[in-house]
Amino acid sequence: xxxxxxxxFWNLENLFDIQDSPRRSxxxxxxxxxxxxxxSQPQLDRKLNQLASIIRxxxxxxxxxxxxxxxxxxxxxxxxxxxxxxSLGRSYGVSHHDTSDQRGIDVGFIxxxxxxxxxxxxxxxxxxxxxxxxxxQVNFRTRSGRLVVLVGNHWPSRTGGEKETAGYxxxxxxxxxxxxxxxxxxxxxxxxxxxxGDFNDExxxxxxxxxxxxxxxxxxxxxxxxxxxLNLMWPVLGRGIGTHYFDNFPSVFDQFLANKxxxxxxxxxxxxxxxxxxxxxxxxxxxxxxxxxxxxGGMGKAVNQNGYSDHFSISMTxxxxx
Length: 322
Description:
The chain has helices spanning 26-32, 41-55, 58-61, 75-84, 162-187, 206-211, 218-223, 234-238; strands spanning 3-15, 66-72, 92-96, 106-112, 116-124, 135-142, 147-154, 193-198, 214-215, 229-231, 244-246, 249-251, 254-259, 269-279, 313-320. By secondary structure, it is of the alpha+beta class. The strands form 3 sheets. It has a 7-stranded mixed beta sheet with strand order 5-6-7-8-13-10-9. The protein has a 6-stranded mixed beta sheet with strand order 3-4-2-1-15-14, with helices on one face. The chain has a two-stranded antiparallel ribbon with strand order 11-12. Strand 9, helix 7 and strand 10 form a beta-alpha-beta unit.
């Protein structure tokens, strides 16, 4: 019987360590310390419990097998999130790498170490004038010995204007496409690669289509000479569902991108395209006219103790043959 993995991704909205944390560098404390005023241990604990209450409901109440996250400050807060998931009884491990982002936020993975082992990690620098998040690659090995590569992304934001910052996301897209090709060259042409993240652009934006080389055409992905991704979020986009809302307009910033080795029906490790969804449990959704996420806040914004994140999570199923 095939093994099925629930894979999710979630931008956790300012999951920062406490104010004046000894785990924060002096440079970073000077850069963000004012925004963290009042971010105490009880505030962090409440935030973690709110996030955990959603994560525990995923995968039919069993929690995801793999959860990619972004907007986390350090491994400490990821470890504390795992602690908050203890009631699931799972052996979650953490893969994380500190990056040089100017706000100190990183990308990481939480995964069930009984199902997968993190064989190697790589952090790919996105070059721009001011530091931004690296693209984080983890090579996972399944219990049956198969290799699958997951790539976490949190591309430069639109702060300063969508058009004015588009070039930064183009650089990130080019970086992802380059390392996608390198993965296949180094690990083998049949290596399954699943990229995920908050891309701060939509599936139709140039950073995804022209630079990351993602498309809605499975035929194009399977026949292209240059490695391409199938963007699995196009059906979600067509339903008018957003993962993030700005000025009450929905945007699909959070996405899964699957390479051609995950697509055939007889693939050893296969992305089940019809399982892709935006995770929107009722308590996460604003009760007003627009079904946007209920944020927790922080980092200079008002805190809503009953909030979660300013992004919805996304999830999908990956199947591994016997």
